[in-house]
Specification:
Aminopeptidase; alpha+beta; 8 strands; 6 helices; 212 residues; eight-stranded mixed sheet
Amino acid sequence: MGLNLRYMQLADIRQVAAIDVICFEPPWSYESYTFEITESDVSHMVVLDQQSDEAPPPSPRRQLLRARLRDKLRGHGPTTYSTGEILGYGGLWKVDGEAHISTIAIHPANRGLGYGEILLAGMFGKALQLDAEYIVLEVRVSNSVAQSLYQKYGFNRVARKKNYYRSDNEDAWDMRVSLGRDTRHRFDRLYEKLRLQHGFSDAYSRASRRRG
């Protein structure tokens, strides 16, 4: 079994959209993902997948989550979980000196295992590869777990965006980190520690973008 960080491809959209449906309201459309992958010149979409010769049987908790997911996706065709299962995904936009993390999500059945940090580190590394001057993201004011992770990588709150989330009008923190020398050195240490801990392969943060 191995974890692989790589660019999102068109074939990934069904699994990615399935996770999106249960993580966000409203979710992105299939067309949005297609545009980000094939047409946008500023977008760098990423997935974390798990490769194994034989997929382990799902836990009772995961079976329940999948049943709920099937109910939500009824009418959109089957959702498969097999070898190459996508555990989470993210998106990074690079415009001039700014790298903007547009989305990041882990399937609820896979949270608490460090996978969100792998995705964040991958996008952080991609921003460095693209010579960004700083990284920006938004996070719910109530999401203290995510905020702690971002602060670990040097992000600071710079502004509160009122009624940012359309589903419930919750505010968001605008968090940013400047990519100076000290930040880069800290990231290098965190990244190497993360690689040693999880043993994931990275075909994203230092790779060239391939469309589709």
